[in-house]
Amino acid sequence: MLISEDSKPAGWIRLSAALYYCAASMAVQFSNKALFTLYGYHFPILMTFLQMLFIAPVCYIVARPNLQWETAKGIMPLAFVNVLNVVAGLLGTAGLNIPMFIALRRFTLVATIALERLLLGKQHEKATLGAVGVMIGGALVAAVTDLSFHPTGYAAVLANDLLTALYLIRVKATPATQGLSTTGLLFYNATLSLPLLAVALAISWEPAAIWAYPGYASAGFRAVLGMSCMLGLTINHSTFVCTRYNDPLTTSVAGNLKNVLMTFIGALSFGDFVFRPWNAAGLAISMAGAVWYATKTALRSVQKNLICHGLFNQPHQQWQASCHHCHCITPAA
């Protein structure tokens, strides 16, 4: 389903898209973490390759998109960013405990705000910047008091933050994506990612260790690996859906809000979280900022709808440019 900028869906549809993204993100992150931590399967490039190998045929069967070289060329930069983003995310998941991974993922918001301003010319309110500042401040407090500091994991997650922001903006702004359904876009993205991943896999250290992994006979391992591949389809699809229905920053914040639950579950699930009061306080501050942003955005959406329908006494002109979804017209004097 294509969403034009002048015909945005109702608020409940946008909310449903955000919740879909949150649920998918939570599920795939836990399945990947289980592979890394519980089964010791540290092959992020191979996992990404398997996910894309599953996604491509499924999406082609569902969407049956017209195969056009011009479309493929237009989407290639998006696929390249996607490969780097997914691999960086998997490396970060492997190297950090869940609460710290989540805290550092808050920096996606800063990257999104900066890139939206640089690439899309979008301005953000002071309240939005304040909420993001609280999230980042809490993440910094948590990071500097992390007893299980892992420099490679930190670097991977910070790269993941920048690449995620760029990926979300490219999904929204790439002209070649405008004529495709979400599933068709996902097919192109996965198919174009496969040769890039094959090259990355061939030149990496992973092939030498893959065959030596001792856990392939485990039914539990095979089940989790299969689930991770299937959930790779879900997270990619939900990312496209959420970003098309909403803006990139809202998608970033939706991903951070689901972390409120994941922080507590993750701290108890995998046994790699070292508790320290300041570290826990930083995580709590960061989550409070996410809740503040969500509350502010929800109230602003309600206020905007009331203004658009003449039920709230505010100057209509200041909202008219951002009120395309209800096609409101300023009454004649």
Describe this structure in words.
This protein is an all-alpha fold. The protein has 14 helices and no strands. Helix 3 (69-95) runs antiparallel to helix 7 (151-173). It is globular and about 50 Å long. The two termini are 39 Å apart. Pfam families: TPT. It is found in: Membrane. Residues 19-293 form the Sugar phosphate transporter domain. One of its GO terms (cellular component) is membrane.
Question: Layout of helices and strands, plus pairs?
Answer:
Blueprint: H1 11-38, H2 44-63, H3 69-95, H4 98-104, H5 107-120, H6 126-144, H7 151-173, H8 182-203, H9 206-210, H10 219-245, H11 248-257, H12 259-269, H13 277-308, H14 317-320
Helix pairs in contact: 1-10, 1-11, 2-8, 2-10, 3-7, 3-8, 4-12, 5-7, 5-11, 6-13, 7-10, 7-11, 8-10, 11-13
Summarize, please.
The chain has helices at residues 11-38, 44-63, 69-95, 98-104, 107-120, 126-144, 151-173, 182-203, 206-210, 219-245, 248-257, 259-269, 277-308, 317-320.
Radius of gyration: 21 Å
Can you tell me the overall shape?
globular
* Count of β-strands: 0
Look at the helices and sheets and give the structural class: mainly alpha
Counting DSSP H or I runs of 4 or more residues, the number of helices is 14
Residue share in helices? over 70%
Question: Secondary-structure element order, as H and E?
Answer: HHHHHHHHHHHHHH
Which residues sit in consecutive blocks of at least 5 with pLDDT less than 50? 1-6, 316-333
Main beta sheet strand tally, sense and closure: none
Query: Please, how many domains?
Result: 1
* Arithmetic mean pLDDT: 75
